[in-house]
Amino acid sequence: MRSLWGRLVAEDELRPRVASTEQAPEPGTLGSALGGLIFILTPSGLGILAARTLVTWIRSRVGDVTLRVTMPDGKHYELESTSVRKLDAAAIQALTESLAKVGGTDPAASE
Question: For the chain, what is the domain count?
Fold first, then answer.
C-alpha cells in the first residue's frame, strides 16, 4: 500500500488530497503498518486523475492484489489485479471512467 501512496502523492494535484492511516503493529512485529488511504476528491476533475493512478498502480502489481474502495456512504468497490491486467485499452478506459464516476467526477467534464 505504501507504493500506491507513493504513486498518488507523486501527482502534484493529488498530493494535498491524500492521507494515510496507520494501524497498530501486529504482535511480534516492529513499527506500525499502513492501514489505509483517505482521498478527498472534489468535482474538479481530480477523480479521473486518481482513477487513472489507481488503475495504473494495480496493473503494475506482481502477484494477486485486491484494491478495496469504501465510499463515505458505506458502498464498497473492489479491483483485482488479475482481472485488471487482462483488460485491453478500451476496457481500461471504461474502468477508469467508472472509477472516476464513483469518486464523483464526470470524466467527460474533465477533458
Answer: 1
